[in-house]
Amino acid sequence: MQLASPDLDGLSSFVTFLLSLTQLLASNWKTLLLSSFLIWSVTVFTRRAKQSKESSSLLVEGVTSRQTPLNDSDIPPVYHHPRSQISDRSTSKSSSQAQKDLIVKVAQKQDHRVKQPYDAFLVLDVEATCEEGTGFEWPNEIIEWPVCLMRWKDKSDQGKACQLEIVDEFRSFVKPTWRPQLSQFCTDLTGITQAQVNSAPTFQKVLKTFARFLASHGLIDPKSGRPIQRFCWCSDGPFDIRDFVVKQCFISKAPMPLWLKGDILDVRRVVSVWAVASGNPDTTTKQLQALGLPGFQGRLHSGIDDTRNIARVMTELARRGVRLEPKTSINPNRRWNWMGKPGEVLEHTLMFQ
Question: Counting Cβ atoms within 10 Å, is residue 311 exposed (0-12), middle (13-18) or buried (19+)?
């Protein structure tokens, strides 16, 4: 068998082509590199445009598939409004679940609640009889009993909370018995008139009415008066219960009820610790200012207005994560030198007040 001879002319032409190509690559490598980059960029842009088009088509399909009305069970608890306020827009189950997951994540991220030992707070700021030039040693009689009942809006099973609100109010004027006639100084200061106290119940009757108020909110046992929920008294300074209530119980010969005994939360003291750079916040107005809140709302030295503004301070302290608990002790057996037998005011001692 004979072997075919190689085509030397063809081989020579191929070798010549390779040599020419090598010289071209050596002299124009920058141009080739730029061309390769442009080809790569066009390829990537084309792929992304295709992916974007596919995502848009899926989104359109998702919107057109929303045919099921929104049910109460699908609404996250944080946004659960009365049925009349719910939008008519519909959503798919997958979209509703995504909203729930998002709300849970946001709530967890923004949860600054602290453990709060008390379930309710009774904010009190009484008004009492007074004479110009006298102080807390005078036998003042309570003439207004205003209370704001506050509870947590967001207390968890672990006892953590930061949102405090007023849920109810109690207010009653009180008829003084030792000196029934109000001084002009007292009326000008408090805004309480003689006619208002003349028609008001005595302190003993106010206590009974207020006890029914507490029982209606499940705070005390209606028969024994013993607390059945954890609540504490709050006031601007210790004076309202430490001084005025103790004096009034003596003058009225009324034993201090079980639900009035115990330590109190001195709001002024808490603010002074929290906003130490603000100086001495010895008035509710200064406390509001120290916490960056709008000014006093209502009439100064109106018991109910004072109480509501103290409640505003309480709400802000709770929002800032302050643990709210009583730390000021009260002695219900405290005595003043004008005290004689129960209910007796020793008039001759008042000249030295």
Answer: buried
